[in-house]
Design brief:
Blueprint lengths: L1 H30 L2 H15 L3 H14 L4 H13 L3 H14 L4 H13 L3 H15 L2 H13 L3 H12 L8 E6 L2 E6 H15 L3 H14 L4 H10 L1
Helix pairs in contact: 2-3, 3-4, 4-5, 5-6, 6-7, 7-8, 8-9, 8-10, 9-10, 10-11, 10-12, 11-12
């Protein structure tokens, strides 16, 4: 009986190996066809000249010819993300994550897509999943912001305090939107501004004032913190 089972396993492994080799061979055969090479050339040219429509159509043709090439799906997700087509980007990322749950870039693009689509609870879940994998202070900052937006003030404050205890927060820059366009500020200043917003929502205006003033002392041109302080006064 044992010998029979061993023989069965050997046969099964051989069949799986042959099947895998056959799939690889077919994929290789597809890539060698003139049609595939033509579509790849069109995609590369369209990408070079920033013609998103042509590039996307060529990508779809390449994916249809070789659906097992994960890099093609990655490229499609990047393209949607770059052109801020967040619904399409999200749908592609979900397919990527289904095949590879640890695909960090797809997780990050899906989190940003959820956020831009106004699905803050799903964005928060995605960022929490990312934080388990990268322990990034930037990711933790995004989590704290979403928790504030969702009214989870205690959790948001806990994460802000964790941020402010990390030495690297003083050296890290984040981008914020201003009336003059995107601006770079210290993550520490951003965290203190966020702390002030939480405290204000909790009804502690004096603590909020101190936090906004701390943010401004770190970044004297931090317009958002100044505006928050003025609104408080």
């Amino acid at each position: 009986m044992l010998d029979t089972m061993r023989l069965f396993h050997k046969v099964l492994l051989c069949l799986l190996f042959v099947s895998f080799q056959s799939l690889n061979s077919r994929a290789q055969d597809v890539k060698e066809t003139e049609t595939y090479k033509h579509q790849k050339s069109v995609y590369q040219l369209a990408s070079k000249y920033a013609d998103a429509g042509i590039a996307k159509n060529s990508l779809f043709n390449l994916i249809a010819m070789d659906p097992n090439d994960a890099s093609l799906l990655d490229s499609l997700a990047y393209m949607y993300y770059e052109y801020q087509q967040f619904t399409s980007c999200l749908l592609v990322c979900l397919d990527i994550i289904k095949k590879n749950p640890d695909h960090l870039t797809a997780l990050e693009m899906s989190a940003v897509s959820y956020e831009n689509l106004g699905l803050k609870d799903k964005a928060l879940t995605s960022y929490e999943s990312i934080y388990l994998r990268n322990s990034s202070i930037y990711t933790l900052y995004r989590i704290a912001i979403l928790q504030l937006d969702l009214g989870r003030l205690g959790e948001s404050m806990t994460n802000v305090n964790i941020l402010l205890e990390k030495p690297e927060v003083k050296e890290t820059k984040i981008s914020i939107n201003t009336e003059q366009g995107p601006s770079q500020i210290s993550l520490e200043a951003g965290a203190y501004n966020l702390k002030g917003l939480i405290e204000n929502n909790q009804g502690d205006k004096e603590a909020a004032r101190a936090s906004f003033e701390k943010a401004i002392s770190i970044e004297p041109e931090f317009a958002l913190a100044k505006s928050n302080l003025e609104d408080l006064n």
